[in-house]
Amino acid sequence: MTNIIQPKVVDANDIDGDGDVDIIFGGGGLTTQGQGARAMYNDGVGNFAFGFYLVTHTNAHAYIIDDVEISDINKDGKNDIIGWGILGELFVFDGAKKYAKVEIFDPPVLGGDFLIFDVDGNNLPDIVVQDRGAGQLIVLYQTSSLQFNKTEILESNWNNKGLSQMAYGDLDGDDDLDLVFPENGNIDGDLSWFENINGKLFRHLIYTELKGARIPKFADVDQDGDQDILLTVSSSSGNEEDEALLFENIGNHHFINWRLSDSLDYAADIEPVDIDGDGDLDVCIRRGTLMTWSWLKITGPRAWTKQLLMTSSLGIGHWRSRF
User: What value does the mean pLDDT take over residues 242-268?
Assistant: First the structure.
């Protein structure tokens, strides 16, 4: 594909209702007209054709630039597209209305990561969003279709010194969805669990003073039936904490911290997957500075060995995975 300027974020799902997987990408920002973020339609056999643009401000040729997700956010049976515009607004492109644009949040500065899941149990997904400019973590509650007129601030003093992602899942086994939030800062460096109790999120501190907590993922690594937390830690090249960590869930709101590797040189994204098919969950990690992929293979109870999978001369952007 050509005429793509600075692709940064990507997601894949069926956006035209024909049963195959299409692609959207963002990251163009302010570009020449026709070269920004847009959809790519799959013809069913893996051939893609460009579709509509994800335009946020037509006159400025501004497009979705930071974080994008395909989700049926208002549960009307049509997949929608959610993403940040370059001027700082969070938009929904409504799949039931030919992807007409709806602005749902406008912080003063470009936001950060967001997650879409039903916090309050009203069967409409809500959005948990980072506001990097204000140093806040905010819940946007969807009270009716595409109406987010109820908000709650979970964190109002976020020491944001770098990008971080969040994760959600059922950590305590009570059948509702909890939130994990790593604070990528050089002072606090907290890893927090916001427990969902009757549709409200309450904070527990799992760990602190992590220098560059970045990307968490949920997985039952120890195969005991509950969700554990995997986390990469690294805020800059040469940081002394270039690590992959496992927070083993032992129940009753308690976690044990295990260091899987401390030599990952700007550890970035992390994915739990059984690479070798032996029934155990291994870990695949992208290392940003050297543009490499590493495989942390589980070789015994809490024993891991590191193997190099791939080296790339090109940078690798952010993706959303659905393991």
Answer: 86
